[in-house]
Structures are given as structure tokens and as C-alpha cells.
Amino acid sequence: MSMYAAGADSAMPNGTADGQPHGPQANQACMTCRKQKRKCNKALPACGLCERMNRHCDYSDSTPPPTSEDFNALRMKLMELESRLNGGGGVGGGIMNSPLLFLPLHRALCRAPKHLVLSCLRTVPNNKKLRPNGMAYRIAFPRLFFLTRNHSHMEDMEANQVSINIPKPSIEIPVDVLDLLGDGQNVQAIISEYFATVHRWMPIVSQMRMTRNMVNPIWEAGPDLALLFLCMKLIISRPHDGIESSQNPIYLAAKRFISLLEMSGAATLLILQANLLVMWYEYGQAIYPAAWMTAGWCVRYGNLLGINGQSEAVQLLGRPSTWTEREERHRTWWGVQIADRVVSHISQGYIMNSQEPDAETVLPVDDVAWDEGEMSAATQTLLSAPIDSPVASFPRLCQASSMMGKVLHHHLGEKIPTETARFDLASQLYLDVSALARQITEEIATVPDYITLTAPLSLTFSALATLCEPYSCPTGYGSKTASAEVAAMQIQAVDGLKTVSRSILDFSEQINAVTTELQDLDRISPIVMAPLYAAAANFAWLVRESGDENSQMALDALRRTLSRLGTRWRNAAEYARILEAQEFQYAVGSAGS
Fold it and tell me: Which residues pair with 221 in a beta bridge?
């Protein structure tokens, strides 16, 4: 039974306990049940399943359109006939191209399951010579990609009539997904809210492409696009009191849908973008270890698609046909790297890899230019460009992510022979990250919308705190009897923590000032929460060490901000609870001493 199938209709609205209707009964199953090959109790005027799903029940005699199974059976018969006509003896295996959806959006998403309308069959080109037996070999994409080590052979295989089929998603959009999305008007509302909120701090989906497609009456769509819409709805949803975010029906439907697409062997950019949104939901709502695992999934899936910027990567998506498409892939890979940085440095589970951006890596172009498709206004900037070079908020976030990567590499990956060399590198890294923090702070004072730069500034603050924290405890890097050099480094690290904590406190007050309305919180990135907690933890430590009254006031202010932001992102509320638990533990310990 499908994991999406409804439970047995043992207590249907129009039937008895065994699903049989009380009153008059139709002569045949309704149109929807026939299409979905579900059991129909034939109740009049509507069967139990249609009534429960609140949809129109049609008992007309018209033949339902063919399903994906019908198309697959037809494909196999055609291939067998082709083999016989050409004198071949076998049928090539492999994954065939999936059905494509060519329907207006409101029909595609509202009147399930009418999305199986057209099936495309990939055949051997006429100008290619067939093998002696008259058949070209067909090799399924996932097996070929993962079972051969040298992917350069893929082009050779194609040249030698070995057809490599990169599958499009070939599954039906689950009924519960269609119900959650609603009609075309509801989907349009989801898209509008997404681009007005989440897109401002994580602009990885092309707004221009989406807008163009939405007004196009003939639009190629499919289950991967439906998944993206569902995940847009998920990321803009607010938590509800008394309901765990991990039990959100939208979240559960999205995770099931992703699993089905993954098992089908589908490889599309939309699926990666959708799962990135799932990761941010999991991170923002403190769903662990799912957030950490999803971030790693996105890294590997980006590698699979070949958008990771590595010259040897296989380009499964093919060459981008437009500048917008190329930039969208580039931004999505940056989004993958940022997600991995953010979720990993918090959990102390960052796994070093060889895909760190280098000095020649290109930053995303200006956000407004990309949204509007203005290629002439989109100048490229390298990661090695001076910090004071003017860039938009998302490129700033990419720079902050790169700085965080350097910090993590310094702590986890660098092999430095002497403490002096390590401390020198740490000091230089502190200066570089601080310079970026100052630059963003200056830009915030000049931009009309303060919120747009809160995410990059937050990640920069997190990088500073992450850099200083291990050095504030000298036994972590030196002997138990600290040398004079280690002690000096400890003093610098503690001063650095105090400085960044005061900056984060000011940052917190500015966030409160620009989010006076409840809907303003929807534009705040969950990246903001980690530095707020880091500063609060530092002030709590100062209170325990010295009983400083100003530190206590700062701690209380940060806790209030976290509690307030917790109405939008539950990781903020969890941080506030952790602080309360630590304070309680300290109070109990002090009373017992």
C-alpha cells in the first residue's frame, strides 16, 4: 500500500462500518476512484472518499485518461515492437523520461490527478547507427552514475549508442500535497508571501522565472515543482502552541514527498531548492538531528547535480540556457554551503570537505538585478575582492559564510606546528572577520531596510564568537600549566568575546526596534538566533564570575529578545530555555556550596 494512501474506508461518511452505502448505489465507481485505482463505495450523490476529501464526485461513463502505469505499459510494448522490427532479441532496460505536465497551474494543483496528460518517450536518434542486434543499450541513470567511478565515460557511452536517461520525476503528486496546496489562488498567495519574506534573506529561487511561468497559460510543471510550492508553504508557516513543529502536517507531507522523489531517482534543481527550505524549517524550529542530516543531504545532492563549481563535476542538468538559470544554480550552491555552515557550527558537527570556496570563487550578483533579470546591471565580484567593495545582502551573507568556513577550518582542519603560528593566524582571522562586521554595520545605517542585512551580520558575529570561544579556555590548546603566550591569547580571546557580545546586544535592540509588528518577524532569518544566544551565554558567564550588574541587565534583555523571536522560530525559544536551565543550575549549585 502506498504510504500516501488513505486508511481503509471502514467508517466512511456515506457507508456502514464495512464501507457499503446505506442508500442508493451507482452502477460503477466514480471517475476519481477509477483514475486513482481506489476502492469506491458508489454511494450517491457522492462516494465516501470524495465526500471525505470535499471534492466533486463524477459518475459519468467517460473513460478516464490513462495513468502513468498505462503509459509505462505502452512504452514497454513499443520497445518490444521496435526490437522485433529491427531484428533484436531484447528490450533495453532503464528509466524512461517521465510524464510532463502541460496544464495551467490551477488545473494542475487543484484537480488531481489530471497532471498525467502527456508522456514523452526518449528513443534512439535516427541518425545514429544501431548496434548489430538493432538495439541501442539503455542504462538507467542512477546506477550508471553511482556504479562507475570515471564519469567521463558517460560521454563516450552516449557516443557509442549507450543511451543515458536522466529521469524527470515520474511519480504522481500525492493527494495530501494537492489538498495542502489548494487551488491556484492559494498557491499564488504562498508564492507572494515567500518572496516577500524568506526570499529577502535566502534568494535562491528565481523570482523572475517564477513570475513569468505563473502568467504563462502553457507551463511545463511536475511533482518537483509541487514539492517546491509545498516547501515554500512550510517555511513561511508559524509554529502553533501545543503542536510540535516536527508534527506539522505540511512538514510530514514534504518529508514523505521528498523520499518518494529520491527513491524514483529524480535529479532536479527544484528538489534541491525544496530540501534547502526544509532544512531551514528544521533548523529554525529546532528539529534535530533532522536539520543536520538534511544539510548534509543538500551538499551531496548538489554534488550529484554538478552545481558545486568543480571542473570535474558531471553536469547532469546540462548547460544553462539563460543567464538567469546559470545564476540560479550558482546561488543555490551558495545556499547549500551557507546551510551546512550554519547548522554544523552550532552542533559542533562540521565535516571538512574539499569544496571550500577559494579566492577566485565568484559571488552571487546583485540581488535586485537578478530578481529583475537585468544582466547588464549584474557585475561579478570575486570572493577575494576588498571587503569594502559594494555588494548586496546575499553576497554579504556568502562572504560571512566563507569567514565562518575559515574559522571552522582553523579549529578543526589546520595542522599548525607551533602555538605562536596558531595564535598569529587566529589574530589575523579575528581582524578579517571584524572588518567584515564593521563594513556590514556601516551599510546597515545607510540602507532603507535594516532587516535585509541582519542575516549576514548575524553569521559574522557567530564567526567571531566561534573563533574566540576555544581560546578563552587555555587548556584547550596548551598544557595544563599555561605558558605566558597562551595566557596572553586567553586575555585577547576573552576581550574579543566581550566586544562581540556588546555588539550583539546593540544588534538585538535594533532588531526589536524594526520588528514592532508581528508580521515583521516573518522577515527575520533563523540565522539571527545563534549569535543572540552566544552573547547571552557570555553575559551569563560574566555574571557568574563577577556578579556584574550590567552583564545581568544585558542577559535579561537578550533573553527577552529570544523569547519574543520564539513566536516565529522555535530555536529562539529553545535557546531561552537553555539559558533559564543554566541559570537555575548555577543558583542550585551556589546554594549548595
Answer: 101
What digits encode the pLDDT tens for the residues 455-494?
Answer: 999 999 999 999 999 898 755 444 455 678 888 888 999 9
The CATH number for 57's domain is 4.10.240.10
Q: What angle do CA 448, 451, 452 make, to 5 degrees?
A: 80
What residue type is 111 in one-letter code? R
Does residue 173 belong to any structural domain of this protein? Answer: no
Helix then strand then coil, in percent of the chain rounded to 5, is: 60, 5, 40
**Structurally, how many domains does the chain consist of?**
2
Cα distances (angstroms) measured from residue 166 to each of 15, 435, 572? 46, 46, 42
Contact 246, 278 (CB under 8 A): no
How would you label 173-185 residue by residue, b for 16+ Cβ within 10 Å and e otherwise?
bbbbbbebbeebe
How far apart (Å, rounded) are the C-alpha atoms in residues 136 and 161?
A: 5
Distance CA 136, CA 580 (A): 67
Strands (E), 35-136: 99-102, 118-119
**If DSSP codes are grouped into helix, strand and coil, which group holds residue 499?**
helix
How does pLDDT run across 281-290, given as a tens digit for each residue? 999 999 999 9
pTM of the model: 0.74
Question: Of 63, 89, 108, which residue constitutes the final position of a domain?
Answer: 63
Q: Which of 63, 80, 104 is the last residue of a domain?
A: 63
| 358 close to 383: Cβ distance less than 8 angstroms | yes
Q: Rounded to whole angstroms, how far apart are CA atoms 23 and 19? A: 12
Q: What is the 3-state secondary structure (H, E, C) of 246-273?
A: HHCHHHHHHHHHHHHHHHCCCCCHHHHH
Q: How far apart are CA 413 and CA 422, in angstroms?
A: 12
Contact between 572 and 243 under an 8 Å Cβ cutoff? The reply is no
Q: Yes or no: say if 574 and 289 are a contact pair by the CB < 8 Å rule.
A: no
Q: How far apart are CA 340 and CA 293, in angstroms?
A: 10
Amino acid letter for position 585: Q
**Coil, helix or strand at residue 84:** helix
* Residues 460, 440: Cα–Cα separation, whole Å: 9
